[in-house]
Specification:
Layout lengths: L1 H40 L3 H4 L12 H11 L2 H32 L5 H10 L9 H11 L6 H4 L6 H14 L2 H9 L4 H12 L1 H17 L2 H6 L8 H6 L9 H36 L1
Helix pairs in contact: 1-14, 3-14, 4-8, 4-11, 11-14
InterPro entries: MetI-like (IPR000515), MetI-like_sf (IPR035906)
Membrane topology: Multi-pass membrane protein
GO cellular component, one term: plasma membrane
């Protein structure tokens, strides 16, 4: 019996080591592009174009970033991106969670049909709606205005689906019925019961929405004409307009544009991981 137990423990340890090796290898492969972007941001063109290419950081990070700020209004564009991304994220969390609570816990005629119609919109590529959306924005007179970015992005089908599924599994009907017996309105139930119980879902959806809006390029390029209103991704495009591309400068701008995303993820990663682990346990 002792021999079998030792063999079992050895097998378990070997499996554990293999899992950790796989996770470490996957993490290194995932982080390498970001690391090499940092390496290029610290190098000059002659270093980047050398053979073999450098794999260790250089000493020109500040110099390359000074080139970025001299070519574009980097901090102004970063503020524009932060304002738009934060506003859309907050609005999306509020509206999608309200809709998710409605579809998950309230009963009304045509609920399932309406929910299916919302899911069908997820199958339509966003590029197909570019022309009609541009026509609507032009008709409303919102061209070159942040409203053209914020208002269409305040709600999305995935956000409704995600919040509906999480609320449906995480909030018991008995708790909602008890709150209704105590005289709570639907909005008070949502605000005082549903929101505190679904904070991990809020964090996950918030990270996804913030990253999507921050990295969006096509729609801000179409509707924002004034350079002072450009978001960061559109502003970075100007770094490619020169005849001789300065890869160190471009990678420096791209690197510093990515840092806010890492900060947002690190701030909310605990809730993000909690939402994934809860989903795994429930499934």
């Amino acid at each position: 019996m002792a021999a079998k137990k030792e063999v079992g423990e050895g097998k378990f340890s070997l499996n554990k080591v293999l899992v950790y090796l796989f996770l470490i290898t996957g993490s290194l492969v995932s982080l390498f592009p970001f690391y090499y972007m940092f390496v290029m941001a610290t190098r000059l063109n002659r270093d980047i174009n050398s053979v073999p290419p450098p794999f260790t950081p250089g000493t020109h990070l500040v110099e390359n970033f000074q080139k970025v700020t001299s070519n574009i209004d980097f901090f102004g564009a970063m503020w524009n991106s932060f304002f738009v991304s934060t506003t859309i994220t907050i609005g999306t969390l509020f509206l999608c969670s309200l809709a998710g609570y409605t579809f998950a816990k309230l009963e009304f005629k045509g609920k399932n049909v309406l929910f299916v119609m919302i899911l069908v919109t997820m199958m339509v590529p966003p590029q197909l709606g570019l022309i009609p959306q541009y026509y609507i924005i032009t008709t409303l007179g919102w061209l070159n205005d942040f409203k053209a970015l914020i208002i269409p992005g305040l709600i999305n089908a995935f956000g409704i689906f995600w919040m509906r599924q999480y609320i449906k599994e995480s909030v018991p009907f008995e708790m909602i019925e008890a709150a209704k017996i105590d005289g709570c309105s639907n909005f008070r139930i949502y605000w005082n019961i549903v929101v505190p119980m679904t904070l991990p879902a809020f964090a996950t959806l918030g990270i996804i929405v913030f990253m999507h809006v921050w990295n969006d390029f096509l729609w801000p390029l179409v509707v924002l004409r004034d350079p002072s209103m450009h978001t960061l991704q559109v502003a970075l495009r100007a770094l490619n307009d020169s005849r001789q591309m300065d890869y160190g400068m471009i990678m420096s701008g791209t690197f510093w544009a990515t840092v806010p995303l890492l900060i947002v993820f690190l701030l909310f990663n605990r809730l993000f991981i909690q939402s994934l682990s809860e989903g795994a346990v429930k499934s």
